[in-house]
Amino acid sequence: MKETLITIVMPVFNAEAYLNDCIQSIVDQSYSNWELLVVDDQSTDESLGILEGWSKKDPRIHCFKNKEKGLIHALRLAYSKSKGELITRMDADDLMHKAKLSKMSKALLNKGKGNLAVCGVHYFKEEGPLGEGYKRYASWLNELTIAERNYDEIYKECVIPSPGWMCYRSDFDTIGAFNSSVYPEDYDLAFRFRKGELKVVGVPTKLHLWRDHESRASRNDPNYIDHRFIDLKTDFFLKEDHDPGRTTVLWGAGSKGKAIAQIFIDRGIDFDWITETPKKQGINIYGKVLKGPDYIDFKQIIVAVAGDHHQKDIRKKIGALRAAQAFYFC
Predict the structure, then answer these.
(1) pLDDT for position 318
(2) Cis peptide before 184 (omega within 30 of 0)
(3) At residue 321, does pLDDT exceed 80?
(4) CATH says 6-223 is which class?
(5) All CATH 3.90.550.10 domain ranges in the chain, comma separated
(6) 80 vs 67: CA distance, rounded Å
(7) CA distance from start to end of the chain
(8) Phi-psi region of 268 (alpha: psi -120 to 50; beta: other; left: phi over 0)
(9) Superfamily assignment of 243-328 in CATH?
(10) Which of 6, 181, 192, 246 has its CB 3.0 to 4.6 Å from that of 300, i.e. a possible disulfide?
(11) What's the pTM?
(12) In the chain, ranges of CATH 3.40.50.720 domains
């Protein structure tokens, strides 16, 4: 039985140090019917030459030059050249487990259209110790994927790894493919997967190997600075989950809480603002007086309080309330 064609789209910018290993991990896949569409995003190193060399060696690898600078433009160009029935993404500094395409496509094909295969991830670093934050993030993602409950905590952080998903082309087109211009593009895509009601099919094996290094885009690209995440979360909340008929409560007056409050005020969204910090209660910020957490019958709550122990305490309190609906933004 002929394997279904899988399209792998991959943007590349100054990745010469990692490209050969990355592409070799794709060539070594146990699943053979794939096309790799690589777009060089105006690299200033030897990335383009490396890509052209691979495209000459393997007819499944196709290399293009990005005329419009930017990762989203590169993704669009790659996708415009694609032919696969199944679509996935790869990052130029990462590695694939040799069974990644096989296991993900099998899980997806078994379920059919309307589903989104999501695999387990593993962070690694070749120089120096891997940060505890990355370990916790990967563990959290993998727990969600195993339970197939990724969307449950979508407001906390990006719950669909950018190179860890696979879906049908028809479903991808329905949710807008790479047409959105919103950064961070992977988080925006996760929200659109949810909006399109693509059901997560968890592939718990750690099939994608995320490489941490100092020049990673998430560390250096201004498109991934913190306020963009807050803007994106708040925008989707107001479009998809905000209920004007219920009391909206913002819990937390730290930097994230203030940023969300400012967006609400700018958009004319009525809300109550609370804090558990006694010295902040009664203070007027942006024209809103902060109150304690016990004064109100909670309705629709955005939690912008960092720290696992604080959030566990807040979850218990909210869980005991009648008709409360909580969205954790950190």
Answers:
(1) 78
(2) yes
(3) no
(4) alpha beta
(5) 6-223
(6) 14
(7) 46
(8) left
(9) NAD(P)-binding Rossmann-like Domain (3.40.50.720)
(10) 246
(11) 0.93
(12) 243-328
